[in-house]
Amino acid sequence: RALEKQLSAAAEEHATAEAAVAAARADATAAQQALDDAREAYQTALALDRAGELRPHLRLGEPCPVCEQEVATLPVSGPGHAAEAAKAAGVVARKQADAAAAVVETRATALRDLDRAVAAGKAQTEALGRRMSTLDSQLAGAPDPGTLKRSLAELDAKRKACDDATAAVRKART
Question: Rounded to an integer, what is the distance from CA 44 to the centroid of its chain?
Answer without folding.
Answer: 38
